[in-house]
Amino acid sequence: MSHRPLPARRSVLRGSLAASAALTLPTALGEAPAFALSGRPKAGWGVQAGDVTRDSGLVWVRSDRPARMVVETSATESFRNPRRWHGPLLGPGTDFTGTTRLHGLPSGEQIHYRVLLADPDDPRRTGEPVTGTFRTASDKRRDGVRFVWSGDLAGQGWGINPELGGYRIYQAMAALDPDFFICSGDNIYADGPLTETVALPDGRTWRNITTEEKAKVAETLAEFRGNFRYNLLDENLRAFNAQVPSIIQWDDHEVTNNWYPGEILGDTRYTEKNVDVLAARARRAFSEYFPISTLRRPDGRVYRVQHHGPLLDVFVLDMRTYRNANSPDDQPTDPQGILGREQLEWLKRELSRSRAVWKVIASDMPIGLVVPDTGDGKPNIEAVAQGDPGAPLGRELQIAELLRFIKHRRITGTVWLTADVHYTSAQHYQPSRAAFTDFEPFWEFVSGPLNAGAFPANTLDGTFGPDRVFLKAPTTANVSPAGGYQFFGEVDIDGGSGELTVRLREQDGTVLFTKVLQPGLVGQ
Q1: Based on the domain organization, do 218 and 310 belong to the same domain?
Q2: 20-34: per-residue pLDDT in tens?
Q3: Predicted confidence band at 465 (pLDDT cuts at 50, 70, 90)?
């Protein structure tokens, strides 16, 4: 690995945290911005960068009042001769958030940026700048790539606990100096209210920071926005966002547990029962609180491919928006499946076009793990596998079609990364063990949660021949973060050999499992 040393980055983070610390208490607790505020606009929620490529990136900010977003970039943190970018006017229509696209950036370089918020009526009046940094993807293979991934934040009643230092896992991920972070979904738990205290089995008490929007399930646009804003109260997350750009995907808890299009909820906590209405509000808040390149398209889609130089393409899936209804998943034909036909054809087309050494498929749900949906009392399936180890049925048919395509097109270097199940594991899929055999071997690595309840391992489905090579999971359900079992994964691609190393890590960064994969192979 030949990453450049970055001695100045920590001072950048200190500046970002200092700006965040300047929040007044009511704003820090999530109150809506007021229009009669005195002084200058403030960006106390920090900054984020996302969907960074070899020559571009998106920068996000939130103001405490109407303001014009201005971004300045520089090759150094001194900001001599900065390049200036004029962003949008931030107002109530986007909950005072905004994103500015930076383009024409040098490849493989550290980009320092600062966001200024200007008074719309007097551009000379600007608030204290908030700083961040990111690396653009390198055109040079020798520079290598390193990134981390995980998912599931503030779930099952476990929010920001200041007595434990908040979301400490972000400190461990930042210490690895990754090029970017993939969040594999469940960025919030809109269906998971928080209480101030929770009694733990060992007699201790868990204490949550709470806000009005987290006191009930999210139904209104304001409540969804408040859920996204809640996580930004954590200083570890704000510091991480200022240092590491993200690739964000969504799953179910951004809306409600195990949802699918067209669903009518039976959950008595909801007055709005139409999931499509809730999903539209959640998607709008999601698009306001994350810098995602495709959400500004007319179709507002989440799925996309992120090119990260000659070594890596990341294929970001959306297994939520286009799925069919959850069912026993045993139908002999299933044209819609979990991806929808249009997304599946897009994925096949983009995989065949990719010339990157490694093709990481960022999947918000696992392939061979049985994930049930018993919310309505029926034995329905939430993910892909349904527990029948025989020939593909239901949503497995779409995955079989994709795996067959990868084999016959001789597409090399595919690796699946996922989260969702709240433990960490490594599965190797092998046709010699499988009922469906027309595919090449591949690996699926599971990580998470970031800060949520941990759960026992799901059973494996033998259709694609998985072998669970590594597993760490609790034996009881909903173990709090105070009990451990919080995980993230690291991927390190060597610029010389092209080898891809996966490390599954605990919350403090301890390595639990390592697997080295060789480049240029169809299956391994």
Answers
A1: yes
A2: 333 333 334 444 443
A3: very high
For residue 443, the cross-strand partners are: 428
Question: Nearest-CA neighbor of 500 among 412, 427, 432?
Answer: 412
> How long is the chain?
524
Q: 91 lies in which domain range? A: 46-136
Q: Of 136, 162, 196, which marks where a domain is finished?
A: 136
**What is the residue type of 354?**
S
Q: Assess whether 52 and 167 both reside in one domain.
A: no
pTM of full prediction above 0.90: yes
Residue 90: CATH number of its domain: 2.60.40.380
Residue 409's pLDDT band (cuts 50, 70, 90): very high
Structure tokens at 215: 């006191």
List of residues 6+ apart from 14 with CB closer than 8 A: none
Q: How far, in Å, CA of 283 to CA of 270, rounded?
A: 18
- ω into 449 cis (within 30 of 0): yes
Q: How many CB atoms lie within 10 A of CB 284?
A: 17
123 three-class SS: strand
Whether 265 and 242 share a structural domain: yes
Yes or no: say if 229 and 163 are a contact pair by the CB < 8 Å rule: no
Question: Do residues 245 and 231 lie in contact, with contact meaning Cβ atoms separated by under 8 Å?
Answer: no
pLDDT value for 30: 40
Residue 92 · residue 34 · CB < 8 Å:
no
Minimum mean pLDDT range among 15-29, 105-119, 181-195, 443-457: 15-29
pLDDT band for 378, please (50, 70, 90 cuts): confident
171 φ, ψ to 5°?
-65, -45
Q: CB pairs under 8 A, 24+ apart, for 516-521?
A: 517/415, 517/443, 519/357, 519/358, 519/412, 519/413, 520/357, 520/412, 520/413, 521/412, 521/413
Query: Count of domains in the chain?
Result: 2
The single-letter DSSP state of residue 355 is -
Tens digits of residue pLDDT in 298-312: 778 999 999 999 999
